Amino acid sequence: MLTDDAYDSAYMDRNGNVILDLGFDFTSYFIDGYACVKDKTSGKYGVIDRSGKYVIGPGYHYLRQRKSGLIEARDDRGADYYYIDINGNRVEPH
User: Fold this and answer.
1) Phi/psi of residue 47, each to 5°?
2) Taking Cα atoms as reference points, which of 28, 22, 55 lies closest to residue 41?
């Protein structure tokens, strides 16, 4: 039985088994094989692949993945939002 403090954020399979627990403060759903997470140590957001490895290191104040393949990003509190791709390159939406 899991208690509230057993995991901060973890990924579970359909049977309730934890399959990926890396101690993140926040995890989003995987979209196209990637998920936005909040690193517990730095308090910054990054993007991981299904193995739990960072593809975009934690360095953002906010990240939100879109189904379009773009990630909505913000560097600092109060700063304007912009978009990045899965490689961390800043892109202009069209």
Assistant:
1) -125, 135
2) 22
Assess whether pLDDT exceeds 50 at residue 8. Answer: yes
How many CB atoms are located within 10 Å of the residue 23 CB?
Answer: 12
Tokens of 64: 């939100």
**What is the chain's alpha carbon radius of gyration, rounded to the nearest angstrom?**
14
11-63 tens-digit pLDDT: 667 787 766 666 777 778 888 889 899 988 899 999 998 888 899 999 999 99
Sign of CA dihedral 49, 53, 57, 62: positive
What are 66's two structure tokens? 């879109």
Phi first, then psi: give them for residue 76, nearest 5 degrees: -135, 155
pTM greater than the 0.85 cutoff: no
Q: Determine the Cα–Cα distance for residues 62 and 74; give it in Å rounded to an integer.
A: 5
Look up tokens 């939002």; give the residue. 81
Q: Which residues contact 79 (CB under 8 A, 6 or more apart)?
A: 61
